[in-house]
Specification:
Shape: rod-shaped
Helix content: over 70%
Keywords: Coiled coil
InterPro entries: CEP95 (IPR026619)
Coiled coil: 68-117
Organism: Stegodyphus mimosarum
Protein name: Centrosomal protein
Structural class: mainly alpha
Radius of gyration: 58 Å
Strand content: under 5%
């Protein structure tokens, strides 16, 4: 009877041991599945994060390109305005010089005419004085 009890105990122990091993294997598989799911989720999140970062980089690169293009256009426009302003200033200076020269010439001409008129008036005055002296002498 002892042998039967030992055999039965041994068999029960084997059954319990097998059940324990099977439960342990099931738990091990569940842990592995959970680890696999966590890893897949982390990889998915990392991919999503990378996509988001790439999209943001693309947005900022596009904005930077647009800004650079806008600045280049603005710089070109400013240079063209400055060039046009300088041209207008040169033209105005040239026109001013020409007008000034013209006015100076006219003033010189008028001065010469006035001097001629004055000279002839002085001559006329002297002739008149001479006539008057002769008349009253």
């Amino acid at each position: 009877m002892r042998k039967k009890m030992q055999k039965r105990n041994f068999t029960e122990e084997l059954i319990v041991e097998n059940a324990f091993k099977e439960a342990l294997n099931i738990e091990k598989e569940q842990v592995q599945n959970i680890c696999k799911d966590v890893k897949e989720t982390e990889e998915h999140d990392a991919r999503q994060h990378r996509k988001y970062i790439d999209a943001m980089e693309n947005v900022y690169e596009t904005q930077f390109s647009l800004l650079a293009e806008s600045l280049a256009i603005e710089k070109k426009d400013a240079e063209e305005r400055l060039k046009a302003q300088k041209k207008v200033m040169r033209m105005m200076q040239q026109e001013f010089r020409e007008n000034l020269k013209k006015e100076i010439r006219e003033m010189q001409k008028n001065t010469v005419e006035i001097m001629k008129d004055t000279h002839f008036r002085e001559l006329d005055a002297e002739q008149y004085k001479a006539k008057m002296r002769q008349k009253f002498r």
